[in-house]
């Protein structure tokens, strides 16, 4: 509708009044436009100049061809303002006469459904150019240049012949082309006046190498020694002033540094030292022993008790137990006939089979103590109730027990014949192994053997108790102590025959048939074995002797460390195929060197509760010329009952634990004043004890009511750290054993013949950091305490003596004093009397006489 | 805690000449070894200190190792070396 001609205007009310186009009066809905004369607008311009509302369209008005302009009221603000002016005649005409088109459209719509479409063919009109032919011309492709045609003809003779075309490089032929070479035109060169450049400094590296020619290869060596001053020079320098000055100046700083180091270690990691080791298995709060397994011999007919327990030094899970009949001496005598029929056994139990023992070693009488040989775990020595020492050799059955863990095939065929005294019972499939040798009955012990130990393979002793080095590399000597107040040393090697054996005995030996299955290792000892030497623990003048119950030698804790040794040895044995125990005679032929400075002293615990520290070396008695045992070095009665455990600590060679009666004592070898620690009396009797193998401050004590007390010296020293119930009856023996870092077992044997195996928890088996040093410090402190007590005792003694002396002196003094005093007193009395006399006489008037007398005296 | 003291001089200011022990509580070979090694180290330490600040000088050198502490007190002519076992 002619939009470009519309010029929106704002007309104020004043303007509306002037031009008579007031809203809603002159201009309304029906007639929204008004024709305004050009002259009127010009008059308004003259009157109001820039204030006139028509000012913005002044130019349009001036250029307007007609006389009257159309002003339309824009009620709806279609063009933005309230009025608009139509600037052209055409627009005016259109506005005034618009309605035709919409009416046509309306008519058209009405007419469609009624009229049919009449086809009007197109009438040709002249073509009006709208610019499209120009575009077509631009787009079309025409030849811009005129094409050149060449006509080439050949010789007439070659007409019709085949043609051969080939290519040729234009530059190879001279003047084949004309080129326009490019040349730098100075008018068009650009000079770059500014440039943006980055730079980096790089070190210049140069590598060169050369190689010398080694024309004459020759080895050369140089030896040098440092220059040193001669003695005189040294002295001279030492005296020089400069040196002294230097030392003085430097002294202070060096002293400071030294002192600093002594005061405190500044580089110590406090946190590291505080922390405990990581990697604990199991609960830290769990401190109880856990029941693992328990073994009882179900086949025995009488009630048995366990007398001694020992773990197999090498094989895992194998434990040997010696059982004895649970009868008192009277009852034994009473039932002696019946007892003969039953075998006295050492049973081998394995973890894999809790019902049937793996091996049963047989002995002539009840065994009260036994031990595996430290160098060969197939040799076992045991002490009987009748005073005999019994030896077994189970090398032949070693394979059987070694493979126990792997399922253990219990062969049903019995390859051994049981002893001829026994009736073989059909359900007994286990192997009975008879002993190899027993000691001679007359020359051995008379009463029960209470303790037996193997001597370590590092030394041996001879008849006199002198110590020699052991060249054979095996433990070949034993020591036993028995209730007949003697300690005997035995040697398992064949003795050189001192006296020729009478023929009768030889015959006897021949006549006895040895069952084929018994190894002949110790045949030479059987029934003729005599001790090497005997020591009697006498109490001096009286006939009563000490009755030893347990021994502890200086190198006793072998068994715990013997594992590696045994393994190495067994390997060597297998390689060499020669068991040293089979050839014991060779061992004797070595000439041995004596070892000096060997500590031949040992601890003995007795039946009466005393702990004796004595020597096994014999000395010459000056009176009789015979060799006598020395007197004990020290003796203490500490326990109220029989001492049944004397044991060295596995960590400290000189700390010994003794348990007996109702209390426990810890001793240090060399301290003669008394025990380091002596516990007070416990409510129940202590019946067995053992050090822990991994924690230096822990030991286990078994009580007679079936409780086990676990003592921890780091926690409490006056009472046990904890107490746990194991069984209902008296605990006879405790033996812990370590299999690995994680597994530690403790075997507890009770009075009713049951062996309990318990597992030791992590807290009890794993030592804390610095535990060894803490415990050794504790012992040192105790030693110092004892020394202090001794000193105080001496001081007190001295004080007491001094006090007595003083009292004596006082008495004497007072006596003398009184005599002198009397005399002095008398004298004074007399003088005072004289004075009195004088005074009285002067008062009476007799002084003249006195004065004259005195005057006369003067003259 | 044992303190072992050795005294050594430097004959001249030339650094080419090593130090020679005057007095020692150690055995000869150890002394010689310590003397040679520590002398070189002292020279190096001194030059380091002076390179950083030419007006500075080395007064005392302490080397602490796992097993002991070595203290060196240098001087124009002499050198004092002390070896101490620290308390743990």
Explain this structure.
Chain A: It is found in: Cytoplasm. Chain A: GO terms for molecular function: dynein heavy chain binding; dynein light chain binding. Chain A: Keywords: Coiled coil, Cytoplasm, Repeat, WD repeat. Chain A: Residues 786-839 form a coiled coil. The complex is a heterodimer of chains A (859) and B (88). Chain A has 859 residues and is α+β, with helices and mostly antiparallel strands. Among the domains of chain A are: 6-96, no CATH class; 290-400 and 430-495 and 518-568 and 594-767, Methylamine Dehydrogenase, Chain H (7 Propeller), CATH 2.130.10.10. The longest helix of chain A is centred in the C-terminal third of the chain and has 74 residues, at 771-844. Chain A is elongated. With 88 residues, chain B is of the alpha+beta class. Chain B has one domain (2-84): 2-Layer Sandwich (Beta-Lactamase), CATH 3.30.450. Chain B is built from one helix and five strands. Chain B has a five-stranded antiparallel beta sheet, with helices on one face. Chain B is globular and about 40 Å long. The N and C termini of chain B lie close together (10 Å). Classes of the chains: A alpha+beta (859), B alpha+beta (88). Chains A and B meet through α7 and α8 of A and β1, α1, β4 and β5 of B.
Topology:
The complex is a heterodimer of chains A (859) and B (88).
Chain A: E1 6-9, H1 13-18, E2 33-37, H2 38-48, H3 58-63, E3 68-73, E4 83-86, H4 89-96, H5 100-111, H6 132-139, H7 231-239, H8 241-263, H9 270-274, E5 290-296, E6 304-311, E7 318-325, H10 329-334, H11 336-341, E8 344-350, E9 359-363, E10 367-372, E11 379-384, E12 389-393, H12 398-402, E13 431-433, E14 437-438, E15 449-454, E16 459-461, E17 467-469, E18 477-482, E19 486-491, H13 503-511, E20 533-536, E21 548-552, H14 558-576, H15 584-588, E22 601-606, E23 610-615, E24 618-620, E25 627-629, E26 634-637, E27 643-648, E28 655-660, E29 663-668, E30 677-678, E31 686-691, E32 698-703, E33 707-712, E34 722-725, E35 731-738, E36 744-750, E37 754-759, H16 762-765, H17 771-844, H18 847-858
Parallel strand pairs in A: 9-13
Antiparallel strand pairs in A: 1-4, 2-3, 3-4, 5-37, 6-7, 7-8, 8-9, 10-11, 11-12, 12-14, 15-18, 16-17, 18-19, 19-20, 21-22, 22-23, 23-26, 24-25, 27-28, 28-29, 29-30, 31-32, 32-33, 33-34, 35-36, 36-37
Chain B: E1 3-9, E2 23-24, H1 28-52, E3 61-64, E4 69-74, E5 78-84
Antiparallel strand pairs in B: 1-2, 1-5, 3-4, 4-5
């Amino acid at each position: 509708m002619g939009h470009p001609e519309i010029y929106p205007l704002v007309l104020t009310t004043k303007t509306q009044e002037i031009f008579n186009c007031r809203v809603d009066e002159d201009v309304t809905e029906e007639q929204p436009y008004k024709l305004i004369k050009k002259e009127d607008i010009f008059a308004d311009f003259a009157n109001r100049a820039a204030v006139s509302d028509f000012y913005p369209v002044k130019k349009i008005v001036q250029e307007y061809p007609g006389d009257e302009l159309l002003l339309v009221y824009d009620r709806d603000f279609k063009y933005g303002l309230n009025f608009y002016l139509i600037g052209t005649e055409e627009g005016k005409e259109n506005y005034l006469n618009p309605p035709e088109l919409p009416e046509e459209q309306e008519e058209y719509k009405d007419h469609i459904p009624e009229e049919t479409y009449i086809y009007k063919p197109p009438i040709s009109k002249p073509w009006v150019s709208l610019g499209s032919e120009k575009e077509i011309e631009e787009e079309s492709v025409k030849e811009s240049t005129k094409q050149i045609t060449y006509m080439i003809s050949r010789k007439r003779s070659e007409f019709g012949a085949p043609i051969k075309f080939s290519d040729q490089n234009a530059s190879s032929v001279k003047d084949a082309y004309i080129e326009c070479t490019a040349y730098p035109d100075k008018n068009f060169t650009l000079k770059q006046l500014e440039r943006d450049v980055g730079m980096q400094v790089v070190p210049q590296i140069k590598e060169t190498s050369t190689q010398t020619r080694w024309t004459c290869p020759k080895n050369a060596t140089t030896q040098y020694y440092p220059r040193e001053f001669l003695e005189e020079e040294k002295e001279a320098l030492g005296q020089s002033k400069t040196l002294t000055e230097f030392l003085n100046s430097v002294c202070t700083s060096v002293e400071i540094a030294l002192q600093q180091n002594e005061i405190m270690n500044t580089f110590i990691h406090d946190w590291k030292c505080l922390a405990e080791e990581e990697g604990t298995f199991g609960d830290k709060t769990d401190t109880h022993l856990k029941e693992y397994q328990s073994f009882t011999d179900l086949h025995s007919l009488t009630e048995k008790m366990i007398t001694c327990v020992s773990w197999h030094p090498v094989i895992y899970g194998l434990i040997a137990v010696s059982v004895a009949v649970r009868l008192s001496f009277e009852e034994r005598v009473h039932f002696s006939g019946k007892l003969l029929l039953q075998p006295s056994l050492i049973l081998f139990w394995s973890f894999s089979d809790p019902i049937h023992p793996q091996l049963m070693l047989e002995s002539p009488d009840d065994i009260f103590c036994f031990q595996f040989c430290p160098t060969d775990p197939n040799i076992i020595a045991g002490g009987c109730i009748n005073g005999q020492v019994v030896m077994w050799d189970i090398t032949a059955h070693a394979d059987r027990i070694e493979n126990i863990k792997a399922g253990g095939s219990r062969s049903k065929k019995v390859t051994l014949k049981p002893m001829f005294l026994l009736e073989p019972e059909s359900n007994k499939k286990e192997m009975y192994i008879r002993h190899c040798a027993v000691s001679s009955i007359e020359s051995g012990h008379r009463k029960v053997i209470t303790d037996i130990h193997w001597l370590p393979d590092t030394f041996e002793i001879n008849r006199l108790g002198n110590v020699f080095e052991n060249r054979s590399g095996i433990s070949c000597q034993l020591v036993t102590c028995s209730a007949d107040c003697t300690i005997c040393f035995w040697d398992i090697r064949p003795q050189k025959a001192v006296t020729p054996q009478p023929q009768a005995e030889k015959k006897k030996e021949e006549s006895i048939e040895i069952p084929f299955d018994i190894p002949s290792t110790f045949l030479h000892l059987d029934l003729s074995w005599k001790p090497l030497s005997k020591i009697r623990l006498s109490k001096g003048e009286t006939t009563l002797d000490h009755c030893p119950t347990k021994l502890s030698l200086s190198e006793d804790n072998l068994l715990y460390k013997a594992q590696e040794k045994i393994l190495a040895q067994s390997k060597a044995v297998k390689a060499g195929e020669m068991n040293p125990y089979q050839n014991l005679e060779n061992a004797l032929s070595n000439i041995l060197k004596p070892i000096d400075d060997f500590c031949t002293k040992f601890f003995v615990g007795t039946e009466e509760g005393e702990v004796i520290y004595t020597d096994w070396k014999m000395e010459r008695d000056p009176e009789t010329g015979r060799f006598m045992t020395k007197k004990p070095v020290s003796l203490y009665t500490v326990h109220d009952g029989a001492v049944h455990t004397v044991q060295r600590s596995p960590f400290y060679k000189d700390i010994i634990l003794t348990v007996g009666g109702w209390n426990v004592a810890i001793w240090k070898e060399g301290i003669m004043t008394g025990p380091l620690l002596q516990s007070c009396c416990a409510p129940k009797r202590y019946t067995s004890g053992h050090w822990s193998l991994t924690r230096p401050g822990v030991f286990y004590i078994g009580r007679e009511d079936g409780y086990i007390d676990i003592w921890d010296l780091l926690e409490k020293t006056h009472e046990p750290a904890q107490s746990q119930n194991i069984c209902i009856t008296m605990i006879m023996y405790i033996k812990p054993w370590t299999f690995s870092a994680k597994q530690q077992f403790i075997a507890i044997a009770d009075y009713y013949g049951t062996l309990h195996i318990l597992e030791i928890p992590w807290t009890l088996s794993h030592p804390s950091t610095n535990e060894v040093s803490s415990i050794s410090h504790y012992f040192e402190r105790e030693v110092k305490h004892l020394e202090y007590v001794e000193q105080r005792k001496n001081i007190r003694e001295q004080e007491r003596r001094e006090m007595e002396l003083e009292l004596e002196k006082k008495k004497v003094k007072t006596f003398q004093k009184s005599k002198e005093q009397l005399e002095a007193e008398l004298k004074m009395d007399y003088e005072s009397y004289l004075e009195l006399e004088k005074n009285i006489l002067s008062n009476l008037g007799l002084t003249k006489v006195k004065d004259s007398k005195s005057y006369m005296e003067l003259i | 805690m044992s303190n072992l003291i050795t005294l050594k001089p430097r004959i001249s200011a030339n650094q080419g000449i090593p130090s020679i022990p005057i007095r020692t509580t150690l055995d000869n070979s150890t002394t010689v070894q310590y003397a040679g090694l520590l002398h070189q180290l002292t020279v190096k330490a001194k030059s380091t200190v002076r390179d950083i600040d030419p007006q500075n000088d080395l007064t005392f050198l302490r080397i602490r190792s796992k097993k002991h502490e070595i203290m060196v007190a240098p001087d124009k002519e002499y050198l004092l070396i002390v070896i101490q076992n620290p308390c743990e």
